[in-house]
């Protein structure tokens, strides 16, 4: 991929589209999804992309979000695209700063490079999670849908002001050793967040 695709380049006629993309996995690997928001050169949202990916890693989900944005851009004849992601690994791999060592990520990286070269101009940059809020929410909505948790996204889609249903709280006994949570009884299903309280 030639250097002008990723460097700071001057825009040509038509202007830049901007895509915020994000991916996540609950369990890593676990239930995974991506989300993306694409804006036209005037700052208008022209696409919201979101998909559940099944059981995958966080990095697989991040690349899936990037690939969805690149595919959308090419299908819609976008000439110039700036992608913003909170995945430092993916951004640096796409810029050639980091090598891609993972056999499962290499085909995704190669396809992303191929898709990016079809554009006239392409840039990718890193942001902190706070700079990617809507894409992050869309990724979480995708994971919720795939896990059968539709209450939160249904409320947002209908424009209701009712808060989403809160998950039931369960207290389990266990201990932490070498950074790993060990339960005294039972096991947790994939996609469950754990809060460890020291007594």
Account of the 3D structure:
This protein has 199 residues and is an alpha/beta fold. It has one domain (3-158): 2-Layer Sandwich (Nucleotidyltransferase, domain 5). It contains five helices and seven strands; from the N terminus they run βββαβααβααββ. The strands form two sheets. Strands 3-2-1-4-5 form a five-stranded mixed β-sheet. Strand 1 and strand 2 form a beta hairpin. The protein is elongated, with a radius of gyration of 19 Å. The termini are far apart. The model is unreliable at 1-12 and 151-168 (pLDDT under 50).
What are the main properties of this structure?
single chain, 199 residues, alpha/beta, Nucleotidyltransferase, domain 5, 5-stranded mixed sheet, two-stranded antiparallel sheet, 5 helices, 7 strands, elongated, disordered N terminus
């Amino acid at each position: 991929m030639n250097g002008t695709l990723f460097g700071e380049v001057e825009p040509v006629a038509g202007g830049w589209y901007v895509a915020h993309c994000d991916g996540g996995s609950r369990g890593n690997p676990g239930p995974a999804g991506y989300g993306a928001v694409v804006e036209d050169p005037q700052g208008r949202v022209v696409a919201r992309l979101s998909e559940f990916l099944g059981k995958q890693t966080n990095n697989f989900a991040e690349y899936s979000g990037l690939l969805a944005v690149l595919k959308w851009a090419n299908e819609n004849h976008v000439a110039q695209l700036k992608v913003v992601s909170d995945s430092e690994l993916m951004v640096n791999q796409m810029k050639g700063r980091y090598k891609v060592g993972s056999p499962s990520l290499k085909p995704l990286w190669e396809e992303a490079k191929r898709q990016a070269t079809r554009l006239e101009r392409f840039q990718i940059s890193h942001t902190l999670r706070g700079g990617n809020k809507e894409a992050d929410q869309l990724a979480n909505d995708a994971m919720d849908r795939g896990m059968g948790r539709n209450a939160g996204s249904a409320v947002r889609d209908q424009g209701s002001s009712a808060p989403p249903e809160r998950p039931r709280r369960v207290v389990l006994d266990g201990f932490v050793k070498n950074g790993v949570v060990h339960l005294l009884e039972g096991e947790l299903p994939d996609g469950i967040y754990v809060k460890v309280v020291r007594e």
